[in-house]
Amino acid sequence: MQEASLDIQLKTLPNNPGVYQYYDKDDKLLYVGKAKNLKKRVASYFNKNHDNYKTKVLVKKIRSIKHIVVDTETDALLLENNLIKKYQPRFNVMLKDDKTYPWICIKKERFPRIFPTRNLIKDGSEYYGPYTNFKTVNTLLDLIKGLYQLRTCTYDLSQEKIDNGKYKVCLEYHLGNCKGPCEGLQDEKEYIDNLNAIRQIVKGNFKDSLNRFRNQMTDHAKKMEFEDAQRIKEKIEVLENYQSKSTVVNPKISNVDVFSILSDESYGYVNFFQLSYGSIIRSHTTEIKKKLDESDKELLELAIIELRQRFDSKSKEIYVPFKVEVGEDLKIMVPQLGDKKKILDLSLRNAKYFRQERFKQIKIIDPDRHTKRLMAQMKKDLRLPVEPSHIECFDNSNIQGTNPVAACVVFKNGKPSKKEYRKFNIKTVEGANDFASMEEVVYRRYKRLLDEEQSLPQLVIVDGGKGQLSSGLKALDDLGLRGKITIIGIAKRLEEIYYPGDSIPLYLDKKSESLKVIQHLRNEAHRFGITFHRQKRSKAALDTELDSIPGIGEKTVVDLLKHFRSVKRISEASREELVEVVGDSRATKVYNYYLSKKDKS
């Protein structure tokens, strides 16, 4: 009955824009979505197979559908956003932010005060913001305080009370921070003119204040009031310095919002700039947890609506990295060149820096989440069937065909597991044959794991190009492991990643975490293999000389080398010198050995 009811609801949905709501068997709201065409959008959930697991779960739980038809897409966007915030459905992305952001308030009163606040009171006062932090607010207020003298007291400065002499000037007046309107020492028009200039500064427009101060400075200079002229000049320098620091693009770009996004398997990161007269007057980056494998376009559209609401943006133009659908009233631009593209690139850089900081924090605070995200990213980047929580990497080491050895390093959850590293002496290959050596060690490694019924890795990396990869793959074929273990090769020169049967290599982004893990594996295998090779070469060098002398053991060899520093010096030492280090019996054996060698030569 429920299925038939759901089927009827699907068939009777209108083709209008609107918002749809999915409910479960207990009539609990699961998901809210927007659509240009309700019938087509909702039907798409039930007419195709979904790759994303959470989407499959959502569709399975849906028992009823409700919808709200609206006039425009803009209305649908706003309604969707409001319903998500109100009901917080389980399967919806939510931009969580519990902060109460600071504002700059110009109080509705005679001789208005200007101050920071987190509370918006609907009493006719003006509020500018919100700002992302108090540091920005305080910087602006410090600038304003240095330029204009405004009162900070809470007196009711009605004309009647001033005329009756109810108030006396305070310390702020004597310090030069206030002109004393409480005693009628400053007229209201001058005060309001200052406030109008401050409004423009808060909006990012410094032009009016600069022109005003320059005119004042000129007037003082003409009247020979050089101290006053110098004081105004200092204000001009403060304002110009602040403007140069805050202006990052063409000053003609004004009243514009800029949005950029980057994402990984689990999260999206959206940066928001608000521009006024070429200055960034607001910057905010937010992290969005994906619920149903949402696309960058879906996440960005949601973020644009939410952030513009949150920060009370009235801008009529937005810059974005790709076309979005966020309402007919906005002019949407995708910059390709020039200053507009520069500011979009700057926004993206801020999103990247935010993401990097989050990664560093997560590594410390929540290492499990970091590991899960890294494994998911590697699975995506390397086109793997499963997440590579267990990776092994092989490297061959030989110099001019001598003492061939190989190393296998093991990483668990992206980190070295050194107790599981293994080294191999090459047994079946003569000379320097990297391909045959690779085949031998890969075969031996996984033959042993199979015999001992140990867990196999999800990913095997061989250090080298197509030749080494083919050798490793042949070993897996011989063991019947093709398809059960993914094997790839990494070539050193350009970091090409090769796959079996594919002649075209994969190139990962040089800054990607997946490539960094692979490089760490390769470098660790190389280090481990070289160390083993050096040990073997050193031992072989000693074996040819001292270890071949009958009756001379390892301790004697070590004692002699420590004292004489080289085999050559030992061979040239007198019997008495040898006796002093290892005693009469062993010294005689070493001395006679080298003496007989000299006689033969």
Radius of gyration, Cα only, in angstroms?
38 Å
Any low-confidence stretches, pLDDT <50, length ≥5?
none
Major sheet summary line: 8 strands, mixed
* Tally of DSSP helical segments: 20
Amount of beta strand: 15-25%
Tell me the structural class. Answer: alpha+beta
> What would you call the shape?
flat
Distance between the termini: 105 Å
Mean pLDDT across all amino acids: 80
Helix fraction bin: 40-55%
Strands, count: 19
Descriptive report:
This protein has 601 residues and is α+β, with helices and mostly antiparallel strands. The protein is flat, with a radius of gyration of 38 Å. The strands form 4 sheets. Strands 12, 13, 14, 15, 16, 17, 18 and 19 form an 8-stranded mixed β-sheet that branches. Strand 17 and strand 18 form a beta hairpin. Helix 9 (207-222) runs antiparallel to helix 10. The chain has helices spanning 2-11, 38-47, 53-61, 73-87, 134-147, 159-163, 171-174, 188-202, 207-222, 226-246, 296-310, 338-365, 367-381, 434-451, 466-478, 513-543, 554-564, 567-572, 575-582, 584-600; strands at 18-23, 29-35, 64-69, 103-106, 114-117, 126-128, 256-263, 267-276, 279-289, 317-319, 331-333, 390-399, 402-412, 415-416, 422-425, 459-463, 486-490, 497-499, 502-506. The protein contains 20 helices and 19 strands.
